[in-house]
Amino acid sequence: MKRLICILATMACVLPVIAQKQQAIRPGEIWPDNEGHHIQAHGGGIIKLKNTWYWYGEERRQGLDTNYRYVSCYSSTDLMNWKFNGDAIALAKPDSMLTGRWVLERPKVYYNAQTKKFVMYMHLDGGIKGISHNKWAYDYARVGVAVSDKATGPFKYVHSFRPLEKESRDIGQFIDDDGSAYLVFECRPSGGFYIAKLSADYLNVEKEISFIHLPLEGGAIVHYKGLYYAVGSALTGWSPNPNKVATAKSLAGPWSEFTDIAPPAAKTYGAQSTMFIKVTGKKDTTVIFMGDKWDPAKLWDSRYLWMPVKIGDGKLWLPEPKAWVLDVKNGTWRYAEGQ
């Protein structure tokens, strides 16, 4: 009898984990990881190594030590089911000059094939000692860099700097089809966002590639059939707005006029651009818009909006979010049954 009770107790612990295997991506809903917890990878970035994707983002779960800022790491082979690999970094305040309610936001990780290092970029911000007088000040405006020998970390903090000697706030990442790596960052004084090529070791930026003179943040770029598509979000803080897209034949531009990616009244369906994921398979290529639905009152409950976009011939459109299924081997997708 005792053995039966033990078996039943074990099954009760295991079954919820088995039952939470995801059969579809459901935009705006709770997205459980392999442990049944809502994925905490906000403002994140994704890289692919062989057949595995790694998703890094702001860890916003409740009960965290407020002396640290955390970046989580998840892994997946199908982009629907994610394994939690723990926190890739727990960063204490990296600079004695940094004051107020300092933040670590929008972490992005690159893999450098030459150095065989994983390099994490992050937006670091807060007040500056002796200069800022507001605990909510965003005067620091730098990027931080950390490195690791493994995709899952732990990452070791290296340094911070202002790319191109410019103020840097929201950052994005772009890795071109030839493997070239770029940092995308918004600069408030310049009134737009920069695309900068990373140095050979990825620990700094090498040069400016392009400056898009429009006050946008959340820069996301994808290269598709000979054109570059750049999407950005207006500067409305936590509140959603109509994200816009421009195209160019080269990252250096010239860039077209920006147009809406969804009905303006929908305000990008409540989301803000974060990144594009391009899934190339045996039959087709699917481009996924990766967005965040922020809830500033409960950041741990912020949701994700991932949807395949309609793209081609200089046009990019984000369909109304519905549950959908991805086939990574074939690079195809379909709406989930019942949609």
Give the secondary structure arrangement, pairings included.
Blueprint: H1 2-19, E1 42-49, E2 52-58, E3 68-76, E4 83-92, E5 98-112, E6 117-128, E7 142-148, E8 156-161, E9 171-175, E10 181-187, E11 192-198, E12 205-212, E13 216-224, E14 227-234, E15 244-248, E16 259-260, E17 272-280, E18 285-293, E19 303-308, E20 310-312, E21 315-317, E22 324-327, E23 332-335
Antiparallel strand pairs: 1-2, 2-3, 3-4, 5-6, 6-7, 7-8, 9-10, 10-11, 11-12, 13-14, 14-15, 15-16, 17-18, 18-19, 20-21, 22-23
List keywords for this structure.
339 residues, mainly beta, Tachylectin-2, Chain A, four-stranded antiparallel sheet, 23 strands, disordered N terminus
- The CATH architecture name reads 5 Propeller
The level-1 CATH class: Mainly Beta
What order do the helices and strands follow?
HEEEEEEEEEEEEEEEEEEEEEEE
**Overall geometry:** globular
The helix/strand class is mainly beta
What is the CATH topology descriptor?
A: Tachylectin-2, Chain A
The biggest sheet, with number of strands, parallel, antiparallel or mixed sense and barrel status, is: 4 strands, antiparallel
- Relative helix content: under 10%
**Strand order in the largest sheet:** 1-2-3-4
Q: In percent, how much strand structure appears in the residues? A: over 45%
Total discrete domains: 1
Separation of termini? 47 Å
Tell me the number of strands: 23
Instruction: Write the CATH homologous superfamily.
Output: Glycosyl hydrolase domain, family 43
Which blocks of ≥5 consecutive residues have pLDDT under 50?
1-19
User: Could you tell me the mean pLDDT?
Assistant: 94
Question: What radius of gyration results from the CA coordinates?
Answer: 20 Å
Number of helices: 1
